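Researcher: Please predict.
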Amino acid sequence: MSVTDELVHVVLVEWADGAPADVADQATRLSREHLTRIDGVLSVSSGESLSGEQLEAGFGWMLVVRFRDRAALDGYLPHPSHQPVSEYLRDASARVVVFDIAA
């Protein structure tokens, strides 16, 4: 682990064909509304890529959640406030990548 116990949770989403035009806006709204209610979540950031490199490989949206510690990350997945976000992403996505690192 790094100097701090904080962890960073990164989610990359490729939207499914036929996803609504406002899919990214809805995912961002749900993430900010629900994930910030979870104990141990320090911050929630999300959005579409602004990179000019165009190396996103089909991924159209990213979520970054910072956690206080490993226990907070472990409690995140089963937490009821995580469910609306994960269900929306599951239903609207073609592909999802999740990566967790020590901050």
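Model: The chain has three helices and four strands.
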